[in-house]
Amino acid sequence: MKTLVDAVVRPPAVVVVEGEAGIGKTRLVRAALARVPSGDRVVLYGDCHPIREPFPYGPVIEALRDVGGRLPAAGELNPVMGVLRGYLPEIAHALPPSPQPLDDPRAERHRVFRAVRALLAAVGPAVLVVEDLHWADDGTRDLLRFLTGRPPEGLSVVATYRRDGAARSPLGPAYLHQPDTTYVAVQLAPLDAGDVGSLAAALMDRSDLPSSFVNRLHERTAGIPFVVEEVLRSLPDAEGPDALDRAGVPQLLREAMADRMAGLSPAAVGAVQAMAVLRLPAGEELITAVGGDPAGLGEALRAGVLHEQPDGRYGFRHTLAQQAVYDAIPGPERRRAHDRAVAALEAMDAPPLVQLAFHARLAGDTAAWLRHGTAAAEQAATLGDTALAIEVVESMLEDAGLPAAHREPLALMLSRFAATGLSHQRVVRLLRHVLRDDFLSRGVRGEVRLNLGVVLSNQAGDTSAGRAEILTALAELSDRPTLAARGWASLALPAWSTDPLSTHQEWMARAESLVEAADDPALAAAVRANRASLEMMIGSPDAFAVAATLPVADPRTAVRREVARAYSNLHDAATTLGLHASAARFADEGRRLAVETGAQYPAYLLDSSSVRRDWLTGRWDGLRDRAASLGELATETPLIAVDIWLVLGSLALATGEWDEAHRWFQAAGLDAPDARYVPVVAAASGGMVELHLARGDLDAAVAEAQRAVARVRRKGVWVWAAPLVTPAVTALAWSGRLRPAAALVAEYAEGVAGLMAPSAHAALDAARGALAAAEQRHADAVGHFAEARQAYTVLPEPYAAARAGEGEARARLALGDERAVAGFTEMAERFARLGATHDAARCRRALRDIGVGFPLPKGRRRDVSVLSQREREVARLVALGRTNREIADVLFLSTRTVESHVATVLRKLGVRSRTEVAPPA
Question: Which GO terms describe its cellular component (predicted)?
Answer without folding.
Answer: cytoplasm
